[in-house]
Design goal:
single chain; 404 residues; alpha+beta; Beta Polymerase, domain 2; 2 domains; seven-stranded mixed sheet; two-stranded antiparallel ribbon; 13 helices; 11 strands
Length: 404
């Protein structure tokens, strides 16, 4: 006899609550990149006339950021600075990197920041004070929407997300110091909108519920002005759980760790707008490998906003990475499957503690017990069919059903 759906949902929800970063961290990230944007627009700025726009990307944009494993780790806030009034015809990637780097270093000095500005392969890195426990990566970029749309439409690929595409700097490419149209491409805004589209009506419904709750408390609020990070959908929660499971499983093999964008993309495809974490998680685990294509011996996981980009491109160069992904997926199916079949809360804990972290799972159990068996957020009950055991789940990719 397995635990009830309500028990499983409460346990998973408690895990997510322990993984979730405080709203204040999202606000801190927003304050930081807004402050940098204001600096770029000050009268003395050397980039002001190029209409700089700074915005967040990565897990902070997607609402899937999780707490660091320990206090020694920092939050990584990924951001972009797009100079909207420049084109790839105007300067080289090196020129753009140095142009923005000059202003970032000036910002660092003006704000009295003590840790030095570092240069990454594609970005500049601002490290904040030790107490802040985060650093911000700033990727210099230029608009690339028109070219991206033309490129995709010529190949008859989906171009609905193309307009927000950008060209980014990468010091490791041969053309880094050459004025050319051949730049690395990205589209964090488009990818964020794709994820929102996969969450469908669930996100809108949860924002409406929160607004109504705030209004009952006498707080003026509207769905339009409510930041997405104030609510969490089952898709986001499932991605958070899978990322932490992945982190701990590959703590000793960091080079083989499946990258977050692969997990997030496959989860987005496999999510079926379930309204509970359990329903979303087990649907994703059951079906995410169906969205991995095979082209001969090559694995293909297309970027939903740019079908020319293969998120699994490194799997061909290092087959161990593909093996690691399928090994992780099978382990996640086993661990969460055992939790779903457990009859007691402690048994659910034991099923996932090795990969989720004992401290985390113990806190989740304490959270449930401290709440008298309930949680701070209301959990819907998943239908029984939403919790499979994975005993017969495929271990190799199958033909995908299609990409949304």
């Amino acid at each position: 006899m397995a635990g009830t759906d309500d028990q499983v949902e409460k346990f998973l929800q408690a895990l997510v609550e322990e993984l979730a970063i405080p709203v204040s961290r999202y606000e801190q990230a927003e304050t930081s990149y807004t402050s940098l944007g204001d600096w770029f627009h000050r009268p003395e700025s050397t980039v002001r006339n190029f209409d700089p726009a700074v915005y967040v990307q990565g897990s902070f944009r997607l609402g899937t950021a999780i707490r660091p494993v320990n206090d020694a780790e920092e939050y990584d806030v990924d951001s972009v600075c797009e100079l909207k009034q420049l084109t790839k015809n105007d300067l080289t990637q090196f020129d753009l990197k140095q142009l923005l780097g000059h202003e970032i270093k000036a910002y660092h000095d003006a704000k009295g920041m003590t840790k030095p500005v570092r240069e990454g392969r594609r970005c500049w890195i601002l490290s904040y004070a030790d107490g802040a426990q985060f650093h911000m990566d700033i990727v210099p970029s230029l608009p690339n929407g028109s070219e991206q749309r033309l490129l995709l439409e010529r190949a008859q690929f989906d171009a609905r997300w193309a307009d927000t595409a950008i060209a980014i700097t990468d010091r490791d490419v041969p053309t880094y110091r050459v004025r050319t149209a051949d730049w690395s491409r990205s589209n964090p805004k488009g990818y964020g909108e794709w994820i929102r589209s996969r969450m469908g009506s669930v996100l809108a419904r949860r924002k409406q519920m929160l607004v109504e709750s705030l209004r009952r408390q006498g707080v003026t609020a509207s769905v339009e002005k409510l930041p997405d990070y104030r609510v969490r959908t089952p898709l986001q929660a499932a991605v958070m759980l899978l990322k932490r499971h992945r982190d701990n499983m590959f703590a000793g093999e960091p080079d083989l760790k499946p990258i977050s964008v692969i997990i997030t993309t496959l989860a987005g495809h496999a999510y079926g707008e379930q309204d509970t974490i359990a329903g979303a998680l087990f649907s994703i685990l059951e079906g995410m490998d169906r969205y991995i294509r095979r082209d001969g011996t090559k694995y293909v996981i297309p970027n939903p906003t740019d079908a020319f980009e293969n998120f699994a491109d490194k799997w061909e160069k290092d087959p161990r990475k593909a093996q690691a992904f399928f090994r992780w997926l099978e382990q996640a199916r086993q661990d969460f499957g055992r939790a779903a079949r457990a009859t007691m809360l402690q048994s659910m804990n034991e099923a996932v503690s090795a990969r989720m972290g004992t401290a985390l799972t113990d806190r989740a159990v304490a959270r449930i017990r401290g709440n008298g068996g309930g949680l701070l957020r209301t959990a819907s009950v998943a239908p029984a069919a939403a919790i499979p055991t994975f005993e017969n789940a495929p271990r190799v990719p199958t033909t995908p059903k299609g990409f949304a």
